[in-house]
Amino acid sequence: xxxxxxxxxxxxxxxxxxxxxxxxxxxxxxxxxxxxxxxxxxxxxxxxxxxxxxxxxxxxxxxxxxxxxxxxxxxxxxxxxxxxxxxxxxxxxxxxxxxxxxxxxxxxxxxxxxxxxxxxxxxxxxxxxxxxxxxxxxxxxxxxxxxxxxxxxxxxxxxxxxxxxxxxxxxxxxxxxxxxxxxxxxxxxxxxxxxxxxxxxxxxxxxxxxxxxxxxxxxxxxxxxxxxxxxxxxxxxxxxxxxxxxxxxxxxxxxxxxxxxxxxxxxxxxxxxxxxxxxxxxxxxxxxxxxxxxxxxxxxxxxxxxxxxxxxxxxxxxxxxxxxxxxxx
Length: 329
Description:
Number of helices: 10
Number of strands: 11
């Protein structure tokens, strides 16, 4: 096997996703480009830690460890990075399964030594069996998936998306780890953007760094029934605004909102027009999609304003972790 050694980190926090976790691990084990190891990082849940340790006791390629930092996804990922042994660290959501050539496409991206990160395409698996008619593809980021407006193929990007991403180990040496205080924390408000902040920080530390998305590196991400409703859509959009305010505070609004400007001035207006056209043609959900896009933009903008005020007052704090590796090589 030529190409980098890849460690896969899966952060987990609840026994409610037991079957999903097992499926995620199985999808890594079935890769055409074998992972060096799979690390399951358990976020402050002793029962789940114990159960997973027993489940994978005899499986040498799977290591189960506790989040060594504060509660939340960022610290869990940092724990996985520090404990991993691969030249490249890939991240997979605990409620997703990777297609067989997922890691093969990631590995190919690192043939160019300037490439510091490679992300992939995340496809939703709707609990109801189909996309809700009102749910605009432009907002699939709300459910952790690739959204309409991202360029197709193998392309250079400002940031990869966290649940389906990989980084060269040296990226963390240059930029530090994921910032705690930005991203998810168990079942609390659905914040995000920690990977955006990291990628911008990485590009500052290494101006020559290339970050890619290869849409052939596909994972399928489960969308629970509760997230198919407009209430979650609104909550997540608001939380995205709060998160973006923190990112802008960390790296400046110029870089922090660079991709978002194009998205809000080009992609979303086109989506509204498409929705209204579908409504005129009596296609199902057209008016709902147009309305959801407008509501999502306004809600995210409201979150951004509130988040900006809080950040200025010092009510929101985050910290960039240095990664202290204990198992490289």
